[in-house]
Automatic annotation (TrEMBL):
L-histidine binds at residues 87-89, 117, 131, 135, 280, 284-285. Its EC number is 6.1.1.21. It comes from Devosia sediminis. The gene is hisS. This is Histidine--tRNA ligase. One of its GO terms (biological process) is histidyl-tRNA aminoacylation. Belongs to the class-II aminoacyl-tRNA synthetase family.
Length: 473
């Protein structure tokens, strides 16, 4: 490389994040518990691709009703627009419609994967994040919606969050009645009002009032245009979200039916409750809507105590599959925000996974003996033990051990010329060594003691390592 060659600064794009082995292991443990609950309820996995044709995703995008806004899109070589999926529900609707003749009905599935939002990133707001969904397609009654809510509660219990959450439930049909009473008629204005109500937890009644009116300016100076309601119209909506009972309609009847099922199954209001402020921001919901709210306090960026808030939600979306087929296809489901839920579990001490143990490292004391070291590694691997030979350029013993430490290795294997002549190996227990280091302050004493190190016969390699790993737990 010449002096004039400009180095590229390594930069992570805004709104994206890297994941380390510890984080991956922790999320994997969490996902295993969620899967177990989904499968107990009779749901099966399915996987759809990251890209869909943009028309498949349609206009049902977060925070916008423009088909090509809020998503990352590109043109195929036949000039068809494709977009990275922004959720896992629209791809499921396409999958179900395409496989309609062969799939069982109702069709019960769960899906896990990354979704992408081309939005302004901010604290805790990413452009790529993982979701974990469960959906029932083809079941029209409130029983399917109630089951979703109960499954959400069971997931939270399985993750150790008993007493720290509530599943809140409402119905879009009830909201439609409120909008009608308020004189809100256009689809665009209805959607803006619903999104304003959905921000109640975030901005409070005063913030929602601004969004129902002319609009709201946030702390950064960005302005969100409001619904343009009069004070009288806004008062009807605000009365409803503050708890004023709505008039009877089909949505109220569905909520009553769901409540009867919660009561029969033993899910009290401390786990699942009807709440008029629940809206959900996506346009495609047509009936019951629900979300999981974590109720414990955390500190925000300003150091203020706030409720942790929502980690997932969903609802009934009877019109989504019907975009692909002429007959009505009822559907309901929910989505968990995996990263946000993992953060919540970390805060409560329920994440359940530590940094994964690294491999056993066979040190390379003599470069001309790499075949012998490779043979040891192969023996360990064949015995089901994670292992590797040191492949770096240094011959320094201390630096090789330091490498094993950084890999979180539990054990290193040492064979120098002296050991080779005697047919023995040195086993260094790095975990015991770290514990002993806390009690030995003198370097000379450390070298003399060689804590955690012992010798074995060469043929005892596998059995000795297995025994040591078992003792380490």
């Amino acid at each position: 490389m010449t002096e004039k060659t400009k180095l590229i600064t390594p930069r992570l794009p805004r709104g994206f994040e890297d994941r380390t082995p510890g984080e991956i292991a922790a999320v994997g443990a969490m996902i295993s518990k969620i899967k177990a609950v989904y499968e107990k309820y009779g749901f099966d996995p399915v996987e759809t691709p990251l890209f869909e044709y943009t028309e498949t995703l349609g206009k049902f995008l977060p925070d916008t009703d423009r088909p090509n806004a809020g998503v990352f899109s590109l043109q195929d070589d036949d000039e068809q627009w494709m977009s990275l999926r922004y959720d896992l529900t629209a791809p499921l609707a396409r999958f179900f419609a395409e496989k309609f003749e062969t799939l069982p009905k109702p069709y019960r599935s769960y899906r896990q994967g990354y979704v992408f939002r081309n939005e302004k990133p901010g604290p805790g707001r990413f452009r790529q994040f993982m979701q974990f969904d469960a959906d029932t397609v083809g079941a029209p009654g409130p029983e399917a919606d109630a089951e979703m809510c109960m499954m959400m509660a069971d997931v939270m219990d399985a993750l150790g969050l008993q007493g720290k959450y509530v599943v809140r439930v409402n119905n879009r049909k009830v909201l439609d009645g409120v909008l009608e009473a308020a004189g809100v008629t256009s689809d665009e204005q209805k959607l803006t009002v619903l999104r304003a109500v959905d921000k109640l937890d975030k901005f409070g009644p005063e913030g929602v009032k601004l969004l129902l009116g002319a609009g709201r300016k946030d702390e950064s100076g960005d302005f969100t245009k409001g619904a343009g309601l009069s004070d009288a119209q806004a008062a009807v909506v605000l009365d409803y979200v503050s708890g004023k009972p709505p008039a009877d309609n089909e949505g109220v009847a569905e909520l009553n039916a769901m409540q009867a099922l919660f009561d029969a199954a033993g899910y009290g209001a401390e786990k699942i409750k009807i709440d008029p402020s629940v809206v959900r921001g996506l346009e495609y919901y047509t009936g019951p809507v629900f979300e999981i709210e974590l109720t414990f306090k955390v500190q925000n960026e300003k150091g203020q105590d706030v409720v942790f808030g929502s980690v997932g939600g969903g609802g009934r979306y009877d019109g989504l599959v019907s975009r692909f087929r002429r007959e009505p296809v009822p559907a309901t489901g929910f989505s968990i925000g995996v990263s946000r839920l993992a953060n919540a579990l970390k805060l409560t001490g329920n994440l359940g996974a530590t940094e994964p143990a690294g491999p056993v490292v066979v040190l390379v004391m003599d470069k001309d003996q790499t075949a012998r070291y490779q043979a040891m590694v192969s023996e360990l691997r064949q015995a089901g033990i994670r292992a590797e030979m040191f492949l770096g350029s240094t011959k320094n013993f201390g630096k090789q051990v330091a490498y094993a430490d950084k890999r979180n290795s539990p054990v290193v294997i040492i064979e120098g010329s002296q050991e080779r002549e005697q047919g023995i190996l040195q086993i260094k227990d790095l975990i015991a060594g770290k514990e002993a280091a806390q009690a030995i302050s003198d370097n000379a004493e450390w070298k003399a003691a060689r804590p955690g190190q012992f010798e074995i016969r060469r043929e005892e390699l596998v059995s000795a390592v297995k025994k040591l790993l078992s003792e380490q737990g």
